[in-house]
Write a structure and sequence with these properties.
alpha+beta, Alpha-D-Glucose-1,6-Bisphosphate, Chain A, domain 4
Length: 184
């Protein structure tokens, strides 16, 4: 009896990154590794907990033909000896040319947030840029304040910058060129 794997569903269709959202966070870094390597690591989200100590769990609920899918992510935002656990669910879209990874958060406090990772060669380096854009949670009176003053700068930037730095270290080690540079 033969078992055929269930084919992956069609990729998600996400709009272009929205401009002008009230909360807009950019994390950017130059990495001493080729675009292809950094892109591969960014797409390999299921292995992030093995590379990144602040990631607790990443699991695909559903896969799409582009390598993305519906993905559950859980991380911790450290505060000295303490860590605040966070989780979200995203639709993930993988673009091969030009290389980019897009997310749309569909569950969790950050529901409705759009995220884009882009990768650009600059000589022997790769510029990786992560943009988060969001209108904030639908909390009366304090939603936008919470997004722009707490959730964005403390949690989103805190986790994204650690993710970018950690994946850059892995890429530079794999490529054999330790000691990348920051850009900002």
């Amino acid at each position: 009896m033969s078992t055929n794997p269930v084919p992956a569903r069609a990729p998600y269709v996400l709009p272009e990154m929205p401009l002008g959202r009230p909360m807009h966070i950019v994390d950017e870094r130059l990495v001493r590794a080729p675009v292809e390597l950094m892109f591969r690591l960014a797409c390999d989200v299921e292995n992030w907990p093995g590379y990144l100590p602040h990631y607790r769990r990443v699991r695909f609920r559903e896969r799409t033909a582009d390598g993305g899918g519906l993905v559950d992510m859980a991380a911790s935002r450290p505060f000295g000896p303490l860590a605040w656990p966070v989780w979200w669910q995203s639709e993930m879209l993988v673009n091969r040319a030009p290389p980019a990874v897009r997310y749309r958060h569909v569950r969790g406090v950050t529901r409705g947030m759009d995220v884009e990772w882009t990768f650009a060669a600059e000589s022997a380096l790769t510029r990786v840029r992560i943009v988060h854009a969001w209108n904030g949670p639908a909390w009366p009176l304090i939603g936008m304040f919470a997004a722009s003053e707490v959730i964005g700068p403390i949690f989103i930037h805190g986790i994204a910058s650690r993710t970018l730095d950690g994946l850059a270290l892995v890429a530079e080690r794999e490529h054999g060129s330790a000691g990348g540079g920051s850009a900002g």
